[in-house]
Amino acid sequence: MDVKLGFGSIPKPQYVFVSRETDHCWYMLSDDAKSIPIYDRALTGVITGIEVNKKIETSYGEAGKTDLHILADKPYVIRSGSESYFSKSLLLALDVITWEQLRHPLTIAVSPGEKTIVFCTIYNPVTYRSVDISWDGHKEIDWQVLGQKVSLKINGIQSVNQVSENRDVFIAQTDTYLAQLNWSPEKGKEFLQQKYGKKSRQLLSDTELVEFTNYLRSQLSRS
Prior knowledge:
By secondary structure, this protein is of the alpha+beta class. An eight-stranded mixed β-sheet has the order 3-2-1-6-5-4-7-8.
């Protein structure tokens, strides 16, 4: 990901919110908190993380949210209610997606349902095929357990082979996180030296790179 020098926008993820409206199903917020409709039905990128059952303070009180992190033309976070059909269909799809599929870009699409309902469908942007999910027995599913399972799958990458082809994606993601945390290059190098005994992210092993990425993400969630 190229870094543009000079004046520009603040380097932070673009949040995308799910809502069933007449002519669109998701939107962004402007700097003055006004809704900006997104008329496109799909977002394609590499899934880099997920936060399930995240507690967020809203104007209506505390609410549980699911945040899906995607790296596309810039970092995006798709936020939906934990109890929504969008979140549930997202978890069902991510549960059956293979590690091989997660190593490549995927397309997250909104599908309007009845009244206020919005479903999530995940596609392979190369084959145009959707990820098949089943709603059979969904009322008996422990969604909290499924969310934990998916979180471990998405965030807890352990196999070196699963990361090696996506190193550029993870390094680009750390670029964004470091900028958001206002870490100077010197602070980053000092951390890497103390934690891993290495001076550069390029020298980290695949497992160390994922660990470092997840560490930065956790620091952002606390700030």
